[in-house]
Amino acid sequence: MDENPIRFGIIGCAQIARKVSRAIGLSHNSTVYAVASRSFEKAKKFALDNKLPDSVKIYGSYDEVLEDPNVDAVYMPLPTSLHVRWAILAATKKKHLLLEKPTALNTSELDQILEASRLNGVQFMDGTMWLHHPRTPKIKELLEDTKLFGKLKSIHSTCTFYNETPAFLENNIRVKPELDALGVLGDVGWYCIGAILWATNNQLPNTVTALPGPIRNESGVLMACGGSLTWLAGKEENDQEEKVATFYCSFLSNVCLDLSIHGTNGTIRLKDHIIPCKESSASFEFTSGAHFTELHLGWTVEPKKIEVVSEVPQETAMVQEFARLVGNINHGSCPDDKWSENSTNIQIVIDAINKSLDLGCKNVDM
């Protein structure tokens, strides 16, 4: 443990908070300092169930965490409809903000959160864990190898899981319009769109189109949907290349976390891009320079499996990176705007998909 770890206050006891509280505990530069829920009893139960140290402060309201001068940063896994209120308040109280995704119901709300963060000089980061796994920069290294991979041409992302219990399909916050009105698009769809934009170095597409056949529950919340993103080739020599991406996300299909990225000379495939099958390592397949053999009886090159070892779980790596940035700010550095830019662009595409759905799946120009 570092001499001066970043002290986290956890606001909300959602299921995902169990994973992140564990991650904070495993981090060398962070500690869980306080936990808050809407009742003291619920916060106390969370602390006991997750074996948090007896020294952790237990609060029966979110305000108490934000008023605690010893809390450096807050992790906020509240329903999306509550983000704009509590995230802005956290920023005004000078608390650095690790905010669960989706970050807001729309870009306008996120802009308010980011403006409050900027005005108060606090670090913002959303809770996308896979970006912090050591496999991720290894893949980016290959994507940028113009000889082995070539020019990026297409991306396909699928993020689905199925929980048939009434407790999820009827009562989970992700299927209730008053809590998380974005439904599956904001939940696992966030990962699909985020992976696509990450592969394009955060370039927004020219056109976004929702795919026909979205599925909604009786309350109108999206349970399954898809979309396509298109980048048009620029006229100038240094402009972006023409490329296309598609995604599909669902609460109604078996677990599938596929990501495939195709270039003019290479292909990258992952089967577990959001949550690796194992904590200790993660793999992906890479094929470069493949052609068909004579008479198309086979391939000249077989996909190569590349394994990347992870010293800590990806959520711990996320916490450590966030805490490092906060520590830098405490020593005079400015917040890293990269993370707010990532979140903003994902939110912009989500808004465009929703607009396309409202228009009957027509193209939306960006």
TrEMBL record:
Domain GFO/IDH/MocA-like oxidoreductase stretches: 138-269
Pfam families assigned to the protein according to its UniProt record, in alphabetical order: GFO_IDH_MocA (PF01408), GFO_IDH_MocA_C3 (PF22725)
InterPro entries according to UniProt: Gfo/Idh/MocA-like_OxRdtase_N, GFO_IDH_MocA-like_dom, NAD(P)-bd_dom_sf
Coiled coil regions, renumbered to chain: none
SUPFAM superfamilies: Glyceraldehyde-3-phosphate dehydrogenase-like, C-terminal domain, NAD(P)-binding Rossmann-fold domains
Domain Gfo/Idh/MocA-like oxidoreductase N-terminal: 6-125
Molecular-function GO terms, alphabetical: nucleotide binding
Gene3D superfamilies for this protein: Dihydrodipicolinate Reductase, domain 2, NAD(P)-binding Rossmann-like Domain
Family label: Belongs to the Gfo/Idh/MocA family.
PANTHER family noted in UniProt: NAD(P)-BINDING ROSSMANN-FOLD SUPERFAMILY PROTEIN, PTHR46368
Name of this protein: Gfo/Idh/MocA-like oxidoreductase N-terminal domain-containing protein
